Amino acid sequence: MTVTEALADAARRLSVVSDTPRLDAELLMAHALGLTRDRLLLDPPRQEAPPALVAMLERRLAHEPIAYIIGHREFWTIDLAVGPGVLIPRPDSETLIEAAVVHFGLAGPRSVLDLGTGSGALLLAALAQWPQATGLGVDTSEAALAVARGNAERLGLASRARIDRGSWDAASRGDFDLILCNPPYIETGAVLPPDVADYEPASALYAGGDGLDDYRQIAPLLRLPTGGIACVEIGATQAQAVRTLFAAAGFLTRVNTDLAGHDRCIVVAPQA
Predict the structure, then answer these.
(1) Are 111 and 173 contacting, i.e. CB atoms less than 8 angstroms apart?
(2) Cα–Cα distance, 160 to 158 (Å, whole number)
(3) Strand 251-257 vs strand 263-270: parallel, antiparallel, or unpaired?
(4) Where are the beta strands (DSSP E) in 144-228?
(5) Which of 23, 54, 61, 52 is nearest to 40 (CA)?
(6) What is the pLDDT along the chain (272 residues), one digit of tens a residue?
(7) In Å, what is the CA distance from 43 to each residue of 46, 135, 152, 258?
(8) Beta-carbon contacts of residue 105 (< 8 Å; ≥ 6 apart)
(9) What is the chain's Cα-based Rg?
(10) Are 100 and 224 in contact (CB under 8 A)?
(11) Which fold has domain 73-270?
């Protein structure tokens, strides 16, 4: 089959496992050809489909996430390497960066902490946004730390980004203007799509019977300087419960929604 024919066939086959079969097919084809998706769409090669597409298509039909198959995922203004053992960055999490941009403007924060940094997505997006800022990303997963350090190097941000092993305790240091955090927040036992449940790390997904265990740990540890904020990701139905936890720890909060209109980010600030 030609590239064009193979794209149509792949999209048809992927429709049983994906809500975006054509997009998936284009991303796999572009990767197999060594092209960007934009280049593929603007000037489709007039050749037979590459043999490498077959194996990648089978992996996707087994529900493996596209990001793991092609090895990267775009987030905010950067492109991140990702792989098994690391949570895949999602557009919903960009809501945290958007909230920080509204608060800090062009001047930006002086220092950034990313709790549970994973691939480094939030920290590195913030440092790319504000070239004068420095930051720290912490995680308990050695696999995640290796990926985050590699991303910092590849993006030219390693001189401003320290990636260390650490836990929620880092929130208590009190010397970060901006704290970013996408903690686990899914209820243990919740039924997730196989793309997520069978491939992404459970430690980055589940947080007890009500999904709030990690917020309960973070809220009393959090320390913010005057003018500083924390932007914390939440599940779409968790806003009131999470706000209550941070209010009990003495903070002011507000909720920001994602592009779909779902509650997605709690902005936490110290009392005046």
Answers:
(1) no
(2) 5
(3) antiparallel
(4) 161-165, 178-181
(5) 23
(6) 999 999 999 999 999 999 999 999 999 999 999 999 999 999 999 999 999 999 999 999 999 999 999 999 999 999 999 999 999 999 999 999 999 999 999 999 999 999 999 999 999 999 999 999 999 999 999 999 999 999 999 999 999 999 999 999 999 999 999 999 999 999 999 999 999 999 999 999 999 999 999 999 999 999 999 999 999 999 999 999 999 999 999 999 999 999 999 999 999 999 97
(7) 9, 40, 32, 33
(8) none
(9) 20
(10) no
(11) Rossmann fold (3.40.50)
Residue 191: Cβ within 10 Å count: 6
Residue type, 222: L
Q: Which two tokens stand for residue 263?
A: 């509650």
Q: How far is CA 246 from the centre of its chain?
A: 23
- Tokens of residue 183, six digits: 């903690």
How many whole angstroms separate alpha carbon 204 and alpha carbon 116? 8
Which position has the token pair 């419960």? 241
| Residues paired with 180 in a beta bridge | 114, 231
Domains 3-62 and 73-270 share a fold: no
Helices (H), 63-159: 66-70, 94-104, 121-129, 142-154
Q: Where are the domains of the chain?
A: 3-62, 73-270
User: Any idea which fold 3-62 has?
Assistant: Helicase, Ruva Protein; domain 3 (1.10.8)
